[in-house]
């Protein structure tokens, strides 16, 4: 009985100590230096689009796309012969119910050319180059699995089958174009705030970018998690992006950084400049495969 009383007294003392020491701590936000964020991906037979935004700290009140868009830069893309001065344009994202702003070119991108990007903004110049020489993938088959496991956990997945080209160092990611309604939401749980009874065209872009390292020239199989939920018999058109190294270096780091955010056992990853020493981003290129109709079986 005496031992029990001692245990109760010790437990009470611990609780009193914990609550007596509780206090609010104000964390002083460190100074933040905003950087320019650049994303420009060229695809043969399409017009160039370059997305140019400010980076902001996590708790910054400026959260709208329009408030972060840089609209007073001079953006040019040259192939060594012609010089394309890009102009401000926008497109409406029907799922997220907002306009997305970018700089748009007037000259179609051509295959097997080297393009140079030049951005003048706020007294700084940002330059990079990419060559549109990626080979075109031929999809042999597309299948579905209700469950596969990757570093993010267990998910359903779409399986891609194709043969790697042995003449290049290759990098791949998938995309799907499909129509969604208000019952659908993203893999992270985001629903559309405005669809109501309507529908919207969405483009899913693969989170992970794959490399042919150690499998050069071999048949490839990779499985990806869809970006939006679906119902049985929902359809979409899938394609494979054959990407250049610029894209791989940027999006692979981005994927690893996201993984570190969700997994406490993964070492944090910080962006290392690959193309822009004074900005965050990528200027790259990719070639698209022909699209294949995909029907969700369940």
Describe the structure in your own words.
The protein is mainly beta. The chain is 14% helix and 41% strand. It has 3 helices and 17 strands. It has helices at 2-20, 65-68, 245-262; strands spanning 36-42, 49-54, 74-78, 83-85, 87-93, 98-104, 114-121, 124-131, 139-150, 153-163, 171-181, 199-205, 210-211, 219-224, 235-243, 279-288, 292-295. Strands 1, 2, 5, 6, 11, 12, 13, 15, 16 and 17 form a 10-stranded mixed β-sheet that branches. It has a 4-stranded antiparallel β-sheet with strand order 4-3-7-8, with no helix packed on it. Strands 9-10-14 form a 3-stranded antiparallel β-sheet, with no helix packed on it. The longest helix has 19 residues, at 2-20. It is globular. The model has no long low-confidence stretch (mean pLDDT 87).
Write out key terms for the chains shown.
globular; 14% helix; four-stranded antiparallel sheet; 298 residues; mainly beta; 3 helices; 17 strands; single chain
């Amino acid at each position: 009985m005496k031992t029990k009383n001692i245990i109760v007294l010790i437990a009470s003392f611990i609780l009193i100590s914990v609550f007596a020491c509780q206090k609010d701590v104000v964390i002083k936000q460190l100074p933040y230096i905003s950087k320019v964020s650049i994303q420009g991906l060229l695809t043969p037979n399409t017009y160039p689009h370059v997305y140019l935004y400010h980076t902001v700290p996590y708790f910054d009140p400026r959260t709208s796309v329009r408030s972060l868009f840089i609209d007073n830069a001079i953006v040019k893309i040259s192939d060594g012969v012609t010089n394309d001065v890009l102009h401000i344009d926008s497109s409406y994202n029907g799922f997220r119910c907002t306009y997305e702003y970018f700089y748009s070119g007037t000259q179609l991108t051509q295959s097997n050319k080297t393009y140079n990007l030049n951005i003048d903004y706020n007294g700084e110049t940002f330059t990079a180059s990419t060559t549109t020489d990626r080979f075109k993938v031929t999809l042999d088959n597309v299948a579905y699995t209700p469950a596969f496991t990757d570093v993010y956990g267990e998910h359903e997945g779409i399986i891609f089958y194709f043969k790697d080209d042995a003449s290049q160092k290759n990098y791949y990611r998938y995309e799907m174009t499909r129509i969604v309604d208000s019952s659908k939401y993203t893999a992270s749980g985001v629903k559309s705030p405005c669809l109501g009874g309507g529908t919207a065209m969405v483009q899913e872009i693969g989170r992970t970018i794959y490399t042919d390292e150690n499998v050069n020239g071999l048949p490839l199989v990779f499985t990806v998690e869809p970006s939006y939920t679906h119902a049985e018999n929902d359809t979409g058109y899938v394609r494979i992006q054959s990407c250049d190294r610029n894209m791989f270096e940027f999006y692979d780091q981005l994927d690893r950084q996201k993984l570190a955010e969700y997994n406490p056992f993964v070492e944090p990853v910080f962006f290392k400049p690959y193309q822009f020493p004074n900005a965050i981003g990528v200027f790259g290129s990719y070639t698209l495969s022909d699209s294949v109709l995909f029907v969700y079986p369940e």
